[in-house]
């Protein structure tokens, strides 16, 4: 199968197959929205400490600043469609509604959806892929309209589902820790503070967090702060202002973290839609 790619300043669509097994999750987060449509293969996704093993024609939604990664478990061909977009592509009056399924705090209970017969979502992705054939003068309009149609379908399907069952005690603990970190991501806190807040030892906290998320508390916080700072810089803040806003105590620490996470220094201007 030949890969299909659409790449504009506001949307990236990629339909491809990989056969190379990976040994670990390539964990990361970023400033745009993602939709993964899984077609075939033997993979697992890790999203903020929750592991998903997708079935064919299933869908996974990733909001900005959400820590996630994929691991290819075998050499079975991994076929998927990945869609990345910035919210500015959507009409302002529809953004909050169409993006609601990506955000559990807005009342949606899940980010993973099963489509057993492949008829619920794939036709919408097919329409998006076919938009590459549209005349250049209307291509962006076609992409926007067809993206709205896909997101509307996801929204309708989400409301038709029953609420998820309660998670285990351990999963709830990690979920609570992640919620705390996200609520205080720009604040100054230590592992001792977390340990006291959740009445568990630092050793146990680190152990359950790493087991669930695939990374350490420190790496999780630094990665998110860097991506948040990148977003503030794209909105016009200087690197120093952005570093202070997201909780870095000094610029040199921010500079090293930024370069380690993103692969380039804060002075390099980047299109936020470019994938590494």
Automatic annotation (TrEMBL):
The keyword Lipoprotein does not apply. One of its GO terms (molecular function) is sequence-specific DNA binding. InterPro entries: AraC-bd, Homeodomain-like_sf, HTH-like, HTH_AraC, RmlC-like_jellyroll. Keywords: DNA-binding, Transcription, Transcription regulation. Residues 175-272 form the HTH araC/xylS-type domain. SUPFAM superfamilies: Homeodomain-like, Regulatory protein AraC. It comes from the Bacteria. It holds the Pfam family AraC_binding. Signal peptide: none annotated. This is Helix-turn-helix domain-containing protein. It comes from Paenibacillus dendrobii.
């Amino acid at each position: 199968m030949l890969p299909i790619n659409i790449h504009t300043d506001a949307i990236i669509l990629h339909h491809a197959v990989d056969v190379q097994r990976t040994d670990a999750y390539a964990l990361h987060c970023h400033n745009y929205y993602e939709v993964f449509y899984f077609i075939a293969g033997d993979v697992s996704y890790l999203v903020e400490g929750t592991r998903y093993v997708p079935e064919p024609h299933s869908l996974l939604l990733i909001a900005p600043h959400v820590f996630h990664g994929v691991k290819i478990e075998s050499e079975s061909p991994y076929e998927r469609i990945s869609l990345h977009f910035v919210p500015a592509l959507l009409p302002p009056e529809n953004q909050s509604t169409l993006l609601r399924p990506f955000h559990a705090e807005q009342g949606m209970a899940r980010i993973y959806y099963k489509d057993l017969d492949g008829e619920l979502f794939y036709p919408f992705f097919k329409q998006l892929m076919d938009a590459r054939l549209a005349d250049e003068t209307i291509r962006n309009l076609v992409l926007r309209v067809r993206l709205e149609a896909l997101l509307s379908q996801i929204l309708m399907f989400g409301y038709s589902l029953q609420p998820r069952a309660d998670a285990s005690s351990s999963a709830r603990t990690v979920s609570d820790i992640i919620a705390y970190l996200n609520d205080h991501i720009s604040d100054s806190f230590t592992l001792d503070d977390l340990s006291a807040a959740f009445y568990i030892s630092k050793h146990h906290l680190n152990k359950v967090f790493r087991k669930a998320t695939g990374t350490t508390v420190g790496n999780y916080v630094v990665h998110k702060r860097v991506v948040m700072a990148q977003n503030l810089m794209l909105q016009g803040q200087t690197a120093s202002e952005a570093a202070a806003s997201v909780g870095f105590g000094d610029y040199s620490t921010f500079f090293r973290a930024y370069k380690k996470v993103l692969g380039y220094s804060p002075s390099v201007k980047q299109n936020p839609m470019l994938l590494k």
